[in-house]
Amino acid sequence: ALTVTYSGFVNGDSQASLTTAATASTTATSSSSVGVYAITPSGAVDNNYAITYINGTLTITDAAATLTFAQIATKTYGDADFNGGATTSGGETIIYTSSNPAVATIVNGSIHITGAGTTTITATLAANGNYTTIPSISRQLVVNKAQQTISFAAIPVQLKGSHYDLSTITASSGLPVTFSSANPLIADIQGSSLGALQLGSTEITASQAGDNNYEAATSVIQPVVIIDAAGDDILVHQAVSPNGDGINDFLYIEGIQNYPENEVTLINRNGVIIYQGFKYDNTSHVFDGHSNLTGALQQAGTYFYRVEIVVNGERKSKTGYFVLKYQ
């Protein structure tokens, strides 16, 4: 509060003797800047005195500001812009700077990550003549490399002599993916093209080694099967002896696994179908001497087969015979 003092009273009078006491005012407020401001007295009334006013002064001096800036949590490349979190005792504006623009810059007052690595972020109170000191605090910012993944869908069955485009295989980072073949004699890689050289199967590995901002991706492996356009890689073994010795215990059809859309029909010498099945695979779907239609164990003798496969949407068939025996 502003205080008014008086002089010139007579006959024992005092401030309390005035009809109306004087008041004082100033243009300064609690948020005014450092400086000198006038104090203006006015309003005193009394019939016994001629009142003269003398202005006073109010001086606002500079203060000591405080700045708080906690340690910055570790970030990852690709994280969104964030506020440094520094605060001041009076809520004043804070200016941030980064010592390494390759790791972080300041955009519209926020910290913007530009790469993996380490930088020093300094928080400073904006220039202000109302404070005796301009505080500044520095903190280390560590930005880790980002993880990345490879999207590599299953490779369709390939025809011998064909080429398969691998350029659609991508990494989440946008970095280029490289490929390798476990058996270049069956399938080789030229850039992003897979060449189907020989009948058989192998594995194709997709890799991305990472860079300054991304960790290496976990490699993804996909099998590739190469078949003959004419289905000539199908070979039906002509002997079946399901006696439990582990040799020819079921009708083995080489190459059938390369044609999952298949149908196998077996006929006895009387023209009766004793086995008819789809997706023959030499493992769970096989002929082991029993009819899959009646469950009956078939007699030893000669049987005839018809193997149908689908190649490029076209059905192809192969016929022949085999001998069933139990000794």
Automatic annotation (TrEMBL):
* Record-linked Gene3D superfamilies: 2.60.40.1080, 3.30.160.710
Note the superkingdom of the native organism: Bacteria
InterPro entries documented for this protein: Invasin/intimin_cell_adhesion (IPR008964), MBG_2 (IPR041286), T9SS_type_B (IPR026341)
Which segments of the protein form a coiled coil according to its record? none
Q: Provide the MBG domain boundaries.
A: 1-59
What is the official name of this protein in its record?
Gliding motility-associated-like protein
Please give the organism: Mucilaginibacter frigoritolerans
